[in-house]
Amino acid sequence: TAVSLSAEIEGAIRRTILDPAAPVRGESRKVFFAYKDLCPTQASALASSFDSSVQKRLETRPTVAAPQES
């Protein structure tokens, strides 16, 4: 169901947003912003549950490189 999928996404973000590895945290931010595009109310509630340092990181959307053409 949509509720359980949302809970899984939020759980993944919670587990990875504080990961010691910067690339993992970066991917977590990308997932957060994709989630925010699809479910803005739930993503805002999730963001507000984090401490201020994590909230600060979630204020700016990460840049995504354009695909390379061959």
Question: Keywords for this structure?
Answer:
about 70 residues; 4 helices; mainly alpha; about 65% helix
Structural notes for this entry:
The protein is mainly α and 70 residues long. The protein has helices at residues 2-16, 22-38, 40-48, 52-57. Helix 1 packs antiparallel against helix 2 (22-38) and helix 2 packs across helix 3 (40-48). The radius of gyration is 13 Å and the shape is globular. It starts with a helix and ends in a 13-residue tail after the last helix.
Helix content: 55-70%
The amount of beta strand, in percent, is under 5%
First-last Cα distance? 39 Å
Radius of gyration: 13 Å
Structural class: mainly alpha
Order of helices and strands: HHHH
Number of strand segments: 0
Shape: globular
Uncertain segments of ≥5 residues (pLDDT<50)? none
- Major sheet description: none
Mean pLDDT, nearest integer? 90
Summary?
This protein is an all-alpha fold.
Give me the secondary-structure topology.
Layout: H1 2-16, H2 22-38, H3 40-48, H4 52-57
